[in-house]
Amino acid sequence: MPLSADELTRIAVNEFFRGQPGADAVQCQLLSIDEIDCNVTSVGIVSRFQVQPNAPKVLGGATRRLGGLEGRLLPSDVKCGFELWIENGHIAFLEGFSYSDDWPHVVDVCQFLHTDHVS
């Protein structure tokens, strides 16, 4: 069954923090969001989050841009990358982008590869 843009966004955000400090806080932040504003284009996806202000913070409340997450979108086998913006310890934006091909209309699975770790 294909993933919705919302589902892919949530999976990618969780993947940034998988096995890292802050994973539980990110999960709480995602649960505090009523709706994710996802915009899918021919080259990628941009998602904006409105996290509840009382949700636990990550990265000591810092503002940072995280990269180092790549993926392969299946079944189309499109290589992609992801960047996540953290503002004052809350997830703010996720950008997913294809490296060469168009962003596929159907994504069943994203196989992730970490090229960097959250610190």
Give a written overview of the molecule.
This protein has 119 residues and is of the alpha+beta class. The protein has one domain (5-52, 61-114). It is 18% helix and 38% strand. The chain is built from two helices and six strands. It has a six-stranded antiparallel beta sheet with strand order 1-2-5-4-3-6, with helices on one face. It is globular and about 40 Å long.
Largest sheet: 6 strands, antiparallel
The average pLDDT score comes to 92
- What gyration radius follows from the Cα positions, in whole Å? 14 Å
Global geometry? globular
Number of structural units classed as domains: 1
Number of helices: 2
Order of helices and strands: HHEEEEEE
The first-to-last residue Cα distance is 34 Å
Low-confidence stretches: none
Tally of extended strands? 6
Largest beta sheet: strand ordering: 1-2-5-4-3-6
SS class: alpha+beta
Proportion in β-strands: 35-45%
- Helix proportion range: 10-25%
Summarize this structure briefly:
The chain is α+β, with helices and mostly antiparallel strands and 119 residues long.
Secondary structure blueprint with pairings:
Blueprint: H1 5-17, H2 23-31, E1 37-40, E2 44-48, E3 64-74, E4 78-87, E5 90-98, E6 109-114
Antiparallel strand pairs: 1-2, 2-5, 3-4, 3-6, 4-5
Helix pairs in contact: 1-2
